[in-house]
Amino acid sequence: MANKTNHNKEAAVAQQADSRIAAVRDLIFGENIQQYNAEFADVSDKIKALKEESSRNLSEAVVELEGKLADLERLMDDKFQDLNSDLDKRLAELDDAKADRVKLGQALEKIALMLQE
After folding, report:
1. Dihedral (CA of 61, 64, 70, 76) sign
2. What sign has the CA pseudo-torsion 70, 76, 80, 83?
3. What one-character DSSP code corresponds to residue 68?
4. Banded pLDDT at 37 (limits 50, 70, 90)
C-alpha cells in the first residue's frame, strides 16, 4: 500500500513538472507557435485557392479547345465539300466520249494544291 502511495506521489510530481515545463515552453515559444500556425493556415488557404483557380482555368481551356476543334472540323468539312463539288463540276465538263487526261490531271493538281493550303 505504501508502494502505491509513493507511486501516486511520483506520478503527481512528474505531472506537475510536465505542466511547469509546458507553461515555460508556452511562455517562451507560444507567440512564435501561434504565428507559425497562422502562417501555415494562410499558406494552406492560398494553396486551396490556387488549386481551385487552376482547376477552373483548365476546365475553361478544355471547353475553348473543344470549341476550336469543332470549328476546325466544320471548316475542314466545308473545304472538303467545296473540293468535292469542284471535282464533280470539272469531271462533268470533260467530254463523255473521250476523257481529256490533261484537263483531268490539271484538275487533280489544283485540288492537291488546295488541300495543301
Report:
1. negative
2. positive
3. H
4. confident
pLDDT in tens, 43-97: 999 999 999 999 999 999 999 999 999 999 999 999 999 988 988 887 777 655 4
> The domain containing residue 80 runs over which residues?
2-116
Provide Rg for the chain, Cα atoms. Answer: 41
95 backbone dihedrals φ, ψ, rounded to 5°: -65, 130
Rounded CA separation 90/86 (Å): 6
Residue 104 and residue 94 in contact, taking contact as beta carbons nearer than 8 Å: yes
- How many structural domains does the chain have? 1
Helices (H), the chain: 2-93, 101-116
Q: Give me the chain's average pLDDT, please.
A: 84
